[in-house]
Amino acid sequence: MRSVLILAMLAAGPAAATGLQIEVAGEAKGTITIDLFEDVAPNHVEQITALASEGAYDGVVFHRVIDGFMAQTGDVEFGLASGDLNRAGTGGSSRPDLEAEFSDRSFDRGTVGMARSRDDLNSANSQFFIMFDAAPHLNGQYTVVGEVTDGLETLDAIKRGTGGNGAVVGEADVMQSVSVTE
Fold it and tell me: How many CA atoms lie within 13 A of 164 on its CB side?
């Protein structure tokens, strides 16, 4: 099954805003559209859009999915559906890690945040997660980069992982292609 995250530019008055859109393949099928917050996390948005423009997210799985919490993807190093997924979630990209860009935005249903290591606030790279439900304990702890504007039903259908860490066992849902539009 397929999962496509399409980064879509959404009109915000006279200026356009950068966005993402995900077409999911796997147990879930459909498109998720995301508005990226360039004004809140400009460095993170630049990193995501650069990786998407390079095709780095194409074919990357949702490797960590916890029911009632979030779906994580974006490991462009070890998360390709065509590869050995034993290390999915442990990699990043060839780009440098980013300093946190915390804001007063809250982690609500549909919020998109950047994944990072537990011990280093400034370790976000390519991985991101999308919230199934609100998680106020993440507020001010992770960089908010956007929010889902369409396709929550597709998000809700993504295959759930197992165990405490939500690792997806077997065939995971995949972002088939990720594109940036203005």
Answer: 0
Let me know: does 47 contact 97? Beta carbons within 8 Å.
no
* Predicted pLDDT of residue 17: 66
Strand pairing partners for 175?
Answer: 60
DSSP 110-163: TEEEE---SS-TT-B-S-EEEESS--GGGTTTS-EEEEEEE-HHHHHTSPP-BT
Question: Residue 102 is which amino acid?
Answer: F
CA distances from 103 to 72, 96, 143 (A): 20, 21, 7
d(CA 59, CA 46): 20
- Non-local (6+) Cβ contacts of 49 within 8 A are 7, 18, 36, 180
Q: Tell me the whole-structure pTM to 2 decimals.
A: 0.90
Amino acid 20: pLDDT? 81
115-135 residues labelled b (16+ CB within 10 A) or e (exposed): bbeeeeeebbbbbbbbbbeeb
The pLDDT value given to residue 143: 98
- For residue 143, the Cα-to-chain-centroid distance in whole angstroms is 12
Which of 38, 33, 29, 39 is CA-nearest to residue 7?
33
Task: Mark the ranges of the chain whose per-residue pLDDT is less than 50.
Answer: 1-15
- Please report the pLDDT score of residue 16 as a whole number: 52
